[in-house]
Amino acid sequence: MPRFLEEEGLYVGVRPSVANRNLNKMENRLLHEPDKGRKWFGEDGRLKALPDPLKKNPSRPFMTDEQEPYLETVFRKAVMREFDYRYIDGAIDGTGRYQLDADINSIVFSHHHLFSREHVLATRLTDLYQDYLARKKKNMTEFLIEKVHILPIITLCCQKFLFKLHCFCRHTRTVKDKEEEMDRQLLKNIIHTWKELKSIREFQNYNNTPIKLQVIKEETSKKEDQLHWKQEIEEEVGELQEDFEENYRKELERYKEDLDRYEKQQAAKAQEKKKKKIKEKEMSAADRELLNEEDLLQPVMPETFDVKLTREKVKAKAMAIRRRPGEPKLFPELSNTATITPTNQCPRGEQQRRDDVSKTKVFVKILFNDKEVSRTPSKPLSQDFRVTFGQIYNLKIVQWPESIKFQIFEARALGNDLLADLYAGIPDPSVTSQSVQLEEMDFSTDLKIDKTNEGVGSGVPFTFDVHGTNTMILMTTGILCSSVAWAVDSDGTPLVPPTTSIAPTNYYNAMKMMDPVAAIGASGVVDLDKLAKWFQESRLDPNDPNNADLVFMLGSKSTNVMQSRDFFRLEQLQQEFDLATDEEMAINRRFRLLTLRDNEIPEFKNYKMAPAYERELPRDLFMEYERKQREEERIKETEDIEAHRAAVNRFMQRVREQVMRRFRLAQHQKRLEDVVIEEVVPNIGIVFTRLLHFGEPRRPLRPIRKERKKVTATAVRGEQVKILLNIIRASSIPIRKSAAGCLLYWHQGRAKSLSKVSKSVGSSFDNQEQILLFQPLVRPYIEVMFQRNTVRTSVGDGPNPSFNEELELPLKVTNDDYSSNNLQSMNDIVYINLFDEMVVDMSHDDREKGTVVHQKLEKKWLGSLEIPFSTIYLNTKIDGTFRVNTPPVLLGYVYEDAMKRSDLESVLTKTEHNTYISMFLTIEPQLITPEPVRERFSTNEDEKLLLHAEKWQQELTNKHPKRLYKPSVIDVNGKSVFVTRYFKPLNIPDDIKDLNLTTEGTAERVAHYVSMIPFVSDTVVFPGLCDIWSTCDQFLRMLAGDEEEHAVLLMNYFLHLGKRAYLLIGSAIPEGPTAYVLTEEGSDFWFWNASTGEHFSYHDSNCPVQVVGCIMNQDNVWGNIQSYEKPVQMDFNIANTSAWRPIFSRSYPSPMLGSIQPEMLQYVATDKKHAEDLQERIEQHLKNKIMDWRSRTLTRWNRHCTKIMRKLLPILEESRGQEISQHHLEELEKQFSAYKVSGFPMNMPFVDLEKLVEAVFSTGVHTQESAEEFALAVYIHAYNNSVLSVWIYVASLTK
């Protein structure tokens, strides 16, 4: 029951007024407490509340007249402080007179934002000449030459210190060589800079500077120089031989010791193995440990001294660093006698620059203890960028000097720019204005000022080259000539504060002991001798963390000051505190594994779960890696084509490391989108569009593939990932010649007897009884191979079968690493092969012909299609109709439409036709593809140009999101380059030029040459990075590239041939995003696939190009803004602005960008002998592989057929794999008349032997069990720069 105190007569008070809504909220909140909030409720069930403290009437407490004692105010008279340590005399009104004189003499700019290019070169030439004069005055080279000449004489006299004198002589010769090299390089730089300066003056046709260089030649005697050279070379060779022989003796002793240990270990192991064979159970633990012990490496005999090679190296070094015999001595003399061109005779831009120089004013502020005390008047800048003040400012001081600072300002129209803060050293008491000398203080500023008119700017890139290459960035720098000293009164008394006491009260001395700038000046801090002397006098604590940097810097200064300390500093990198020595770290196998994995070596970069102990590592972990290293060392010593390819791979590896290093640095530059992830605001228009899909009618016969969920790499298991293929249909498959006669009979519709048809067909029919009107034309099926796993479809019927089958292939990756970087680096290929299944009669006894049937199935290869795995992964799916690569000669088959011709001889004629397969490929489950690189890389392009290009690209991408627009790309240096710089006419290879073909024939030939350069996707070379574009010379040097490199090189060749060519960026099947070359051929347009050498007309319905995004050349970039994107539906008139939007137009004219391509390509002829050796090696290797694959069956090789094939392969190379003449085909069939031949030629670029073996294995030629003999021929056509076209003809023969 509630209790109400008011009813019991107790005083409660008036509760404060609170709204019932607030009370209900509070009560409800308290009821959810663990104890139901019982302590907050009263006995009446209401919330406890104190009485309302507010009163209705105001009241005031009683105040007495007496004042509280603690509030009384006591007056005390002000007393001056006895001594203030900030002031020299202890007070601001001291009686002493102290004065500093600051002399601001002049400012000379060594670089200014109004410098012209000629000023930059003149300043550089002046600095080089000053270095030359300083070195000439020191004359260190001549001193060392004389020292080298006299040291051998001293060595002969002093046999006691022979070893030390030999070492000192070698060291002196090394120093002398360095000094000579520096002198010669300095002279070269002076002459080169002077030539650049003269070329700038000739180009601009006026002079800005009075610099003039004269080179005086002094003729020398060639005979005396040669005699001197020979003597020095022989002396140096003798010294090197002495050093080598001394080291050779030590290495020979070490070799004998290692050889002795190696032989003992091998002998002991051989003895233990014999014991193991006799009594394995009785082996002791020591014997087992000896057998399991790792084998020692067999020592290598040290090499002997090669006098001839050493002499050549010494001679080559002398040629590089010394004056040649008979070469005159050069003595440069720099003067200021050149005439400066008057302003009125200069161009308008130069006149504006000189006018800006005259308007620029400079002044200096003087700050004492961080307070401005004076400033110079603003004086204009002269044309030689000097400002002369010549004033002395008297500073009367009352405080101890803590700092004296000069601030240099440049007066501009809208304000003053601070250029530099310079601290002057507080002068010693002995430095007065009568004895002080001017001091030069260097200054620099990070102020960024863009270039105007003919100026080069400050902090912005500029170049001397017209093409915009070799850019540099210079900051505003200069020299201030000034001095600070104590003043002297009329009596000659220095106005210096008293310095007799060094007590703590002397603030000036205490401050000088703690601040090096105040003690020895800003220039003294740079001088290590002065700094070390101040460090000794100040007696700073070296263990103080604040002095750590200073102690570390002075630690390398070998002075007595730092060596005679009574204290030491604990260095964390001292050898005594290392956990392991360098030798132990080098031989530790686990540390080696971690290092190789960190360096992303292919064999170890995906290695997971490294064991914690070295003993847990597998014994053969590094065996494969070391074998490859030894193979590379062996290839380095040879001089064949494989050695050249190895050098190419090493160059590509260096480029890869350089690019990946730059990209890693760029990835640290985060954007706002990388840190802040916000949901995209939904578009209302898309919502209504999606609502309309619910009302669309269902179409069961036209299903739409749904978007699948992407799976992360961590959520995937190895056995779950598969490659799915949906083979739909094939068309235009060649048919068997054995069925051609019957097919012809039905097509002609005439009443011909089968005997006539049999005679017409010839050897295709054995006799009339074997001809069946309903025998199959062809029984095709498709076999897919990936990572040596194969699946196949069922057998179709006829040349246009329909399969509609789904195939699955497992995907295996290294170490089960399904990350995007690892998947991109996979270079596996999906081989899709088209076969004809034939029923072969195995009965050899005619008596059993009517009662017993012995048959077996065999397959004949008809063509193939190769799709890299990286293409499937990056595109997530590939869907379309693909052209099958069929061989130019396919014996025993002919196309069906050739039968419809009236001439019966065309039955046996190989005409050019195409076979197509319609299919769909994807990866299940769908893996996450790498996100495009969004970092903004460094660039040398104009900022306005890049902003305009980004705006152009963004506007077109918003309208057509499926199309590719690419105004700028990334080069191998990791810099953003405008795409038009990659196009320039380049000379074609000399061996193709010497053929003297027509323009069309030359175009076909260079397209074939480009297609023979190996194709390597950028995702394999640079995994995890964006698309990298290399120049044509880099492409030919690396001998590897993707679609862009092939297309750019082919387009530049076409431009050299006079064709109107463009680079097309779009999408094609099966490549996905790709690059083609577009050429105008009269009223037609051809699309060239530079990776295969094929071309297609834009009217061709089977053209692989599906989406056209943009086209470009050396002048402009045109974006496709048409409603259609397929070539057959498009208008290729780039002048039509309603169909193509150029990036350069009237609103933004072309800046006429230069090309980054070389002036001309350098070609090196390939050694034919090396190509022939490689040809024989490939042929023998393939024969051995086929015999290994047929290990259960005897493999015989037919030399006669091989010889026939070798004659045919050069003809196929001449025709670039196209159809050969009727004469050659008839001759080939006549020579093969005694055999039933099933074979084909294959053409591909040479990458390595494994690629060739994999291509031959995928054809399944080794599975022909009924073949009695085999024939294999290889031909290599060597183009310039080691570009190799490899032809392989393989066939099975049955009599």
UniProtKB/TrEMBL annotation:
Protein name: C2 domain-containing protein
All residue ranges annotated as the Centrosomal protein of 76 kDa C-terminal domain in the record: 1169-1291
UniProt-listed Pfam families: CC2D2AN-C2 (PF15625), CEP76_C (PF24652), CEPT76_peptidase (PF24656), DUF5523 (PF17661)
Ranges of compositional bias, category Polar residues: 334-346
GO CC terms in record: ciliary transition zone
Organism: Lottia gigantea (Giant owl limpet)
Sorted UniProt keywords: Coiled coil
Domain CC2D2A N-terminal C2: 325-498
Coiled-coil stretches: 230-289
Sequence ranges assigned to domain DUF5523 in this UniProt record: 1-77
Gene Ontology BP annotations: non-motile cilium assembly; protein localization to ciliary transition zone
